[in-house]
Structures are given as structure tokens and as C-alpha cells.
Amino acid sequence: MSNMAFIFPGQASQFVGMARDLFESSERVRSLFETAAEILGFDLADVCFNGPLDKLTRTEHTQPAVLVHSLAVLTLMEDMKFIPRFCAGHSLGEYSALACAGAVTFEDAIAAVRDRSRLMKAACDSTDGTMTAAIGGDGDSIEKLVADASAHGVLQPANFNSPGQVVLSGDRKGVSFAQEDYKSYGFKRMLPLKVGGAFHSPLMRHAADRMANTLSEIKFVSAKCPVVANVTAEPVESPDEIRDLLVRQITSPVKWMQSVEKMYELGVRRFVEIGPGKVLAGLVKKTLSDVGIDNIGTVEELERFMQTTEVA
Predict the structure, then answer these.
(1) What is the pLDDT along the chain (312 residues), one digit of tens a residue?
(2) CB 7 within 8 A of CB 280
(3) How many C-alpha atoms does 261 have within 13 Å on its Cβ side?
(4) How many domains does the chain have?
(5) Measuring CA to CA, which of 17, 219, 282, 287 is 20 to 30 A from 52?
């Protein structure tokens, strides 16, 4: 198991019907959803299983839904003693990674994400922000585009997802500048994203400040295995550093590609995405050519993983 990393998705991996088979197969998963409903103040299972999609895709619903789907898989894996070498999560998924690593309880992770999702929604509602995916280009292209856009509005990298794929975030004027002039900076395409606001940008500052208060009340302990942080793309284990990086994450770029490369550098040769969808598996495939990639989001996928993996 020393060459394995567990990776956890964030927003954009949700779909109506998510986690239903996990719920139906396990009393412990049903209990997890009941606990989540008590913490969140709404029936998460109903939103996950029945939607409708526009309801599920609201930030205050999406973030808990994706988190609890990942936690549901981990609940079924608790007795199997699978120990990854590293954990990492994309944005919201970092909370799943920290729960997997034992740095925070499932209950506290849900409570933290409840507040995170509501604070980020409030920040979206009070600012005129959006995001766009930049395809092609390189580091110099991004740096020059962001610098030039500062004369027009707010623009910064939000997600370094894979080679040639960077998501940009900012206010309408900054993003519009990028969408209009991208070819002159060497990008092949600039794809507008249907999002509620400018995640991972300075427009989330108020949410980050308020989230610091929430996280100060959450108990973190030393992680049982290192979690590669979004902000630094470096392993982290200490509670104080974990808390600080989670606050900074809200306004900082997600260094996902760099995190994947760091885990590879440190010996990881198998990446297992835990939770809904296969977004991260696709990004790993675009970043590394010689690694194993698995997904565990359903009972069937978990059973297949068990059959092909040696227990630690």
C-alpha cells in the first residue's frame, strides 16, 4: 500500500442519485446520512437521491453532498484497514482527505463544510464574480494574462488542474478581459463556467475571514498519514498548519496538478479517487502517464477495489 494515494473530489462531481446504492447497502451509511441531516438542518439524502439538479447544484447543497458521498465510501472501508501513503482532495475534497487521514472527525468535517458552503454562497451573492477555464498556454501565458487583466478587474488562477488546463477566477471585468483576448496570450480556448461566483479568488475574502472563526472551534489532530495541501502542494500533518491552510485555501489557487506531481515524486504509483464521479481520475491521467488509477464511488466499484488490492 506504500505506493497508493486516496484522492477526493470537490464541486462539479455531483449528480442526482449519488450515493443511493451505498445508502441502500449499509446501515452505517444510513446512520451517516441521518447524522449529516441533523448537522445540516435538511435531508441531505433526499437532495442527493431526488434532486432536482438545480437544487443539488446550489453551493450549500453540493458541498455537503460531495463530502458525505466520499465519507460514505470511507465508512464502508473502515473495517478493511486500507492505509494510503498520502491523501489529497480538490478544494472541498480536502475536508474528505483530512477525515480519511484521521485529522478531523466525520461529524466535524460535515459541520465545517456546512459553514464553508454557506459562507461561500453569501460571498458569491454579495460579489459579481465568475470563472473560466483556460485551455492551452503555459505558466508564462497565465502570469502575463493575469497581470494585464489587473488593469481591468480582478483575475487570478483558481485551479491548476492538469497540464494545459487552468481555471481562472475573478470579477466580471477581469474574466471578460481573459475571454476576449485569450488568443493573443497563447491560449487555445477559454470556456466560461456555470458557477455561482469567483471561488478561490480575493472575492472570497469575507468567507475566508468568517471561516477562520469556524475552524478555530473545530478540533484537529495530527494526521495518521500526510495530506497534500491545495495551497502549498506539500504534505501537512500538524493541526495548526492544517487549520491555517484551510482558511487560506478559500482565496488561494488549488495546486492540484502540482499536488499530483508531488505525490508521484514521493513514490505514489496508484491513485484512488473516492467519492462521486471521475473528474480527478481524468486529471491524474492527463498529468501522469505511468500510474494506476481507480475510482470508488459505488458498491460495485468498492467490491472491485477489494478484489484487486492487498489489505495493509
Answers:
(1) 569 999 999 998 999 999 999 999 999 999 999 999 999 999 999 999 999 999 999 999 999 999 999 999 999 998 777 789 999 999 999 999 999 999 999 999 999 999 999 999 999 999 999 999 999 988 899 999 999 999 999 999 999 999 999 999 999 999 999 999 899 999 999 999 988 899 999 999 999 999 999 999 999 999 999 999 999 999 998 999 999 999 999 999 999 999 999 999 999 999 999 999 999 999 999 999 999 999 999 999 999 998 888 755
(2) yes
(3) 12
(4) 2
(5) 282
Last residue of a domain, one of 170, 192, 214: 192
Let me know if 152 is a catalytic residue: no
Q: Which of 13, 70, 91, 117 is catalytic?
A: 91
The CB density around residue 307, as the number of other CB atoms within 10 Å, is 7
Cα–Cα distance measured from residue 295 to residue 301, given in angstroms and rounded to the nearest whole number: 7
Is 91 a residue of the active site?
yes
Determine, yes or no, domain membership for 197.
Answer: no
